[in-house]
# Entry
Amino acid sequence: MIVTTTVQEVRAARRDDPWLTWGLIPTMGTLHEGHLSLVRRARAENDRVGVSIFVNPIQFNRRDDLDAYPRQLERDCELLRTEGVDLVWAPPEDEVYPPGYQTYVDLEQITLPLEGASRPGHFRGVATVVAKLFNVFEPTRAYFGQKDAQQAAVLRQMVRDLAFNLEMVICPIVREPDGLAMSSRNLRLKSDERQAALVLHRALKAAESEWQQGRREAGHLRTTMQQVIEAEPLARLDYVSAADPISLQELAGNAEHVLLSMAVFIGAVRLIDNFVLGGQTE
Ligand code: PAF
# Structure
């Protein structure tokens, strides 16, 4: 496994084998089973697998969140070696954003609601760094998790709009046995908070149960999730949403195909989770 910090070495590895397929998994490190599920899928579908590990400063709108983001490069590389990854790019900040850097990727409507409303500038940072990763790796396929549902929708839109020559593969959320969606942020939960964090999954299950019983009015689904969250003393609701899975616009009336999503603070840690009901429409 090649581990490198430079654009030049990634390009050299990619250009050594121009006829082979490459799968890319962009990450911010502190890898868990969710990331590894993407690596395994990429390993099965491509000749070569590349992983980037870069805590992208421009997608954080709070300095404390960036500083607290966990970093475990050595452990990550060991895990990736075991999974048969070919190349890891773990660049320093000035390799991605050299002095004088001034190019950013901005998407419009799709970045405005949900995470975009709570974290101004977040998707500009995500789209910019992912566009750069696509240019550096030139992957055949790029793998992302459904846990960041809006990120997946935004990046799909970017790939369409800018005609990136690659296939986007969105993989299912990986959960702990008790239902908590895997996230690098879970490491920051104290033990009582870890228990309280189950409220996100509980709220989604409650709304899903209503939907399955035919109570599909979008407002009712939002209220159901909200009530479950508000009953948990350690939780502070940021948003709940019942939106169209593609446009991410809030639904009114009956929600046959719906992305149920939420962001909730458990203590100082902000967690997100989602379910898609009625089948993915794309
Ligand atoms: O999902 C993430 O970990 C990040 O947003 C990504 C896609 C690696 C961009 O920094």
